[in-house]
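Dear U.,

For the methods section draft, I wanted the exact inputs and outputs in one place so we can describe them consistently. I've listed the two proteins in the order they'll appear in the manuscript figures. Please don't edit the token lines directly; just add comments below if something needs changing.

First protein:
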Amino acid sequence: MSAAAPLLQVEGLKKHFPLKHGLFGGEVVAIRAVDGVDLTIAPGETLCLVGESGSGKSTVGKLVLRLTEPTAGTIRLEGVDITHLGPDAMRPYRRRAQMVFQDPYASLNPRMTAGKIVSEPLENYPDIGASARKERVAALFEQVGLRPDAMQRFPFEFSGGQRQRLGIARALALNPALIVADEPVSALDVSVQAQVLNLMMDLQEELGLAYLFISHDLGVVEHIGHHVAVMYLGRIVEYATKDALFENPRHPYSQALLAAAPLPDPRAKRERVVLQGDIPSPINPPTGCAFHTRCPKAFDRCKVETPQLVPTADGRLASCHLVE
């Protein structure tokens, strides 16, 4: 998708969780949370991963950071295959990829001061002295819009937006190249969401950060994204530039997501796409195209043949028999 050398390259990524099934738990089945995902993120780029709850978005984020071990596939960070690196070999690469969590309160230790929370990553890599750490933390506070004199306060003394700024400062402490942001503004008021998003965009421009931005809010995605990967039941069904996706979604699931998103102008009209039922269980996904049980455009081929994620005539990737 990008001419720049990839910062992150994911190929064939899978995560299946074994689950005992049956009356006496003798049968073992697998929850296919992620079932063959390919992603590429260039330096300084934001790739937004979107889809309904249960589609596997957050699991992809954890796999990329090796917080969860993959069942199959490869993860390359800055050209190095980190898929099977042990804890010691993985240690340098953990500096290069950090995470901002969804809940800006639960992700912060309530017994630690704000300064201690932000400095903790630096203490795990003791190549920075105590005085330099304190200066670095003060600079990070200013960088995310917090006063350095707030370093002695505790998380409960901050608002939700300020707590998320703390989370961002902590993620920045080790100078990462990639930040995985898992629904980072969904728990915030709308007015505060815009402030945090603008901060993330400013930091990206200033520091050259790349984001894997996980969200279900298409308004947020339209504001911050460069590319968008649409996920359904553990797989990518469409991968396009943000402008291309919002102007002309090709996959029926992408069309349904955009049709359900609210428009800024209440007088504007958009064709409604109604999906049948709920997202199927990843334990027993449908045969053929996983989306065919809900797709208003499905035909017989969709029930038996799984479409591949292939390039389309307009340069995007889509997994649908109708756009091959």
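Second protein (the one for the lower panel):
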Amino acid sequence: MAWSTALDIYCERLGPGLLAEPLNAVSNLAFLVAAISIHRRIGMRRDFDLRLLAVLLALVGCGSLVFHTIATVWASVLDVAFIALFVLLFVDRALRRLFGWSAKQAAAALGAVLLATAALAATLRLPWLNGSELYLGPWLALIGLALGCPHAAAAGWLRIAAVLFGFSMLFRSLDLQWCDVWPLGTHFAWHLNNALVLWCAMRALLAPAGPIGAATR
């Protein structure tokens, strides 16, 4: 498949054109709002990793906006790439900041997340998931972080994020199935809810009084 091949994989898109998915495109502004909110909450803290995550949060919205307007293979890769970068960096920082893991321990955990994601995506090719199997690995990682987090405040935010992400997966999976009764689809709700998921996840990193253990290494 060529990089410039056009993709039509969402209920809202009925043909070619930049404005063929208006709701799917505009709903990505929620990621920018979430990124600005987190940036303000970081304030004067000298935490480069948190600022980088805030930038990636904005780029998730930008990548998705490009995909839902350009709708080509290369735009799809860009969309997924920004999401993957955010997930990997977030899991690494959560393990080091909240759990006190070393860089090597966090790297091993990231490897496990990648393997689990690849395995689930390859084996659970169920039509009703509508491609959402790619996100099962990150969801399981988020659930694991929420259940094991030693910081009460951060754990609360992670639990909220994990529950919300379950609804996000539902919205993404139902998009094509509900086309007959809801022509606009539900993918835009995946964007809106995921912006809230990532905002809550970032609030977890901001919740503790400061980094512990290996977080400062």
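Candidate sentences for the figure legend, describing the second protein: The CA atoms of residues 3 and 73 lie 5 Å apart. Residues 73-97 form the longest helix (25 residues).

Thanks,
Y.
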